[in-house]
Specification:
The complex is a heterodimer of chains A (about 80) and B (about 525).
Chain A lengths: L1 H10 L19 H15 L10 H4 L2 H13 L1
Helix pairs in contact in A: 1-2
Chain B lengths: L5 H16 L5 H16 L4 H31 L5 H47 L14 H17 L8 H9 L12 H8 L7 H33 L8 H31 L17 H7 L2 H16 L2 H14 L1 H4 L2 H18 L3 H19 L1 H10 L6 H19 L7 H7 L9 H4 L11 H21 L4 H6 L3 H18 L17
Helix pairs in contact in B: 1-2, 2-6, 3-4, 3-5, 3-6, 4-5, 8-9, 8-20, 8-22, 9-17, 11-14, 14-15
The chains are: A mainly alpha (about 80), B mainly alpha (about 525).
């Protein structure tokens, strides 16, 4: 989990990933950030995020993102 | 049948009366019949194109539905299979769904490509190789880009399992042909539109009134502003030898206003008319000229097209296996910081190339798309500098700076958009720099601008309309103006609406040397 949080902080150091639950709804993350997160996850954690998983519910918070990563790792 | 015609108003009136007079269970079927009549009026031969798209997409959706249903039944009936067997079963169904989806995309995007881009390809070949291949001049069915993209979004979502396919072909046909959105979008998503498209709607006076107000506001933008500016825009753009310098700046400004009033006005009519039938369409604009940068502008302008490209091209390309390999390669060769930006920028270039081509079959639009992309990438690269600037300069957090940024974004977008109106790219690049010469300036201000069939009062009307746009835009920032209007007492509420109707009737531009029936985005 810490490795995952570091990836997020590295991409957007100005965002409070611990508490924010409206990363997409409040347009805090843009499409560039989303792709950066996905490529970092692939590069550092070997997780492939398919395009159909790029939905607001999976990217609105670090917790939701982590839940998606765990699900993808499980598959 | 154009929105801006008495025929359309009559059609709307008849459909509206029948819609609320007939038993509610027939409402969606009546909308389908009305939509087909509307489309048939554009030209009966076009019906075959939209019918092929609707039927082929429905059939593909049904096949995918059957494949996924068989998978679910198998998994339910054989609970004892291993995890690997389950995975393999899911993979097989997914592969089948994807194959059907790809076939559907090839067929429908193929129709779009043949209709829209064959002559563009022939023209390019002719100019590159000096050949003289005759143009084929295929018919371009009304709204083909819009209904094709809407249908393709549906089939991709169904294959992704985002929602169930619509099994009733007539109901699906309504999703594709729903008449208000046929002219120029918005590009709706099935899961959102179907919520109100197929429901039964009681006569809701408040919703109908708000829909009618929205449509009246759209007619005001289209007929009082957009159509009024057509002669000056075409006059300058089609006579580059006569009108250079100051005239080009006037063209840049007036075309942007024309496009804004035409497209947002058309969408206001679309959303308003749909609302009168109880159907909620997606918003396509969010006060675009209040944007402080080009990225924000594209989040607020033609929103449904932007999100379509993002969801169905940008993300899938960016996270594809091929792109992830590119990402790894670029990181190794260029270093982490630069390398990680390569896949994002490659996808961005692809999306903007597609956006340009979607807008029209000409190099003007391709260059326009790529210039937008260039500005976005430069802005992205300069982001750290902006951050430092905001940190160091206190005035960058003031309202005045915000207004400056909006002003800058307006002109940036306006200059890029001038590629729409000149005959070709070299001519555009030749004409724009003349703004900085002395050509045309003195002539412009000594009656030159009155040569296009517009009088001083026309420019005053446009200026007053711009002030109204600004006020409405500011009010819109709080909540939808129709809702604010509904809260006003009866007399001022209806006074405002009737003044708007009278203004349209008195000051609407009717046939002074242009075709008032065409919306600019109707051609896309």
């Amino acid at each position: 989990m810490e490795e995952f949080m570091n990836i997020l902080r590295d991409i957007r150091p100005d965002v409070d990933f611990e508490n924010c639950t409206t990363l997409i709804d409040d347009k805090i993350l843009d499409s560039f950030d989303i792709i950066s997160i996905i490529t970092e996850l692939n590069s550092q954690m070997d997780v492939a995020v398919p395009a159909d998983q790029i939905i607001p519910e999976n990217f609105n918070s670090a917790q939701a993102l982590w839940a998606m990563v765990e699900k993808l790792l499980d598959e | 049948m154009s929105f801006v015609s008495l025929g359309f108003l009559l059609f709307l009136l008849i459909l509206f009366i029948l819609y609320y007079a007939l038993p509610r269970r027939f409402q969606w079927a009546l909308l389908l019949a009305g939509s087909l009549v509307f489309y048939a009026f554009a030209s009966p031969k076009y019906l075959i194109y939209i019918a092929v798209t609707a039927l082929s997409t429905w059939f593909a959706g049904k096949l995918i539905h059957d494949a996924y249903a068989a998978r679910d039944a198998f998994l339910k009936d054989t609970p004892d299979i291993t995890k690997e067997e389950k995975k393999s079963c899911k993979e097989a169904a997914k592969k089948k769904g994807r194959s059907i989806m790809v076939c559907c995309l090839i067929l429908n995007l193929g129709i779009l490509a043949v209709c829209k881009y064959t002559d563009f390809a022939i023209g390019t070949i002719n100019s590159l190789f000096g050949t003289d291949i005759a143009f084929l001049r295929f018919a371009l069915p009304m709204g083909i880009s819009f209904y094709t993209f809407q249908s393709m979004g549906y089939i991709i979502d169904v294959s992704r399992g985002k929602y169930q396919a619509e099994l009733n072909p007539a109901r699906f046909a309504l999703f594709v042909t729903f008449f208000p959105q046929l002219v120029q979008g918005p590009i709706s998503r099935f899961d959102q539109l179907s919520q109100t498209l197929y429901s039964e709607h009681a006569f809701d006076a408040q919703k109908i009134t708000q829909g009618a107000w929205r449509a009246v506001w759209g007619f005001f933008k289209k007929m009082v502003v957009a159509d009024r500016l057509v002669p000056v825009v075409t006059g300058i753009a089609q006579n580059p030898d006569k009108y250079a310098g100051g005239y080009v700046l006037a063209l840049v400004f007036f075309y942007t206003i024309q496009l804004y009033a035409d497209f947002t006005g058309g969408i206001d009519i679309t959303i308003g008319v749909a609302k009168m039938f109880g159907v909620d369409l997606a918003e396509n604009f969010e006060r675009p000229f209040f944007s402080k940068n080009i990225t924000e502008f594209w989040r607020r302008w033609h929103i449904t097209m932007g999100t379509w490209f993002k969801d169905y091209i940008f993300y899938p390309v960016s996270v594809s296996k091929w792109m992830l390999k590119v990402s790894k390669w670029s990181r190794a060769k260029l270093g982490t910081q630069l390398g990680k930006r390569v896949p994002v920028y490659l996808s961005t270039i692809l999306v903007w190339l597609a956006t340009g081509i979607w807008h029209g079959a000409s190099w003007n639009f391709v260059v326009w798309g790529l210039l937008n992309c260039l500005v976005i990438i430069i802005s992205q690269e300069l982001e750290p500098l902006y951050a430092k600037f905001h940190e160091k300069c206190a005035f960058s957090n003031t309202r005045g700076w915000d207004i400056f940024q909006m002003f800058r974004t307006f002109w940036l977008m306006a200059f890029l958009r001038v590629l729409d109106v000149y005959r070709n790219v070299p001519l555009t690049f030749r004409m724009v720099p003349t703004i900085f010469s002395s050509k045309g300036w003195s002539e412009m201000f000594s009656g030159g601008m009155l040569k296009f069939g517009l009088e001083v009062r026309d420019y005053i009307i446009v200026a007053i309309a711009l002030v109204i746009f600004l006020i409405v835009g500011i009010l819109q920032g709080k909540k939808p103006v129709a809702e604010q209007l509904a809260e006003k007492p009866l007399v001022p509420r209806y006074l405002i609406v009737w003044i708007l109707i009278i203004v349209i009737l008195v000051f609407g531009a009717y046939g002074i040397g242009y075709d008032a029936t065409q919306f600019i985005y109707n051609q896309f």
